[in-house]
Amino acid sequence: MQLLNNYLSINLRKQCNNAVSNAVMRVNAVHGTGYIVSQSKGWSIQINYLGSLMLLAN
User: Fold this and answer.
1) CB 3.0 to 4.6 Å from 46: which of 11, 34, 51, 55, for a disulfide?
2) How far apart are CA 2 and CA 9, in angstroms?
3) In whole numbers, what is the pLDDT of the chain averaged over residues?
4) pLDDT in tens, 41-57
């Protein structure tokens, strides 16, 4: 039972990670550099493929 639980949780985690990276890649294709989290005059905060935050001048 424990093995089955481990398998299911690893599998679910993989699926979630894949869904997130697919979403980020789709957004990335549109914006070029990453998912835009917040944007104000002259600056934007983005998340890149590796999940790190970037503060960029627009």
Assistant:
1) 34
2) 11
3) 66
4) 777 666 666 666 666 66
Question: Which amino acid is located at 17 in the chain?
Answer: N
Distance in angstroms (rounded) separating the CA atoms of residues 41 and 19 = 31
pTM of this prediction?
0.33
Round to whole Å and give the CA distance between 29 and 14.
22
End-to-end CA distance of the chain: 53
- Whether the pLDDT of residue 13 is over 70: the answer is yes
Q: 22, 42, 25, 43: which is closest to 34 by C-alpha? A: 25
* Contact in structure between 45 and 38 (CB atoms under 8 Å): yes
CB-based burial label for 9 (10 Å; 0-12, 13-18, 19+): exposed
Q: Which amino acid is at 58?
A: N
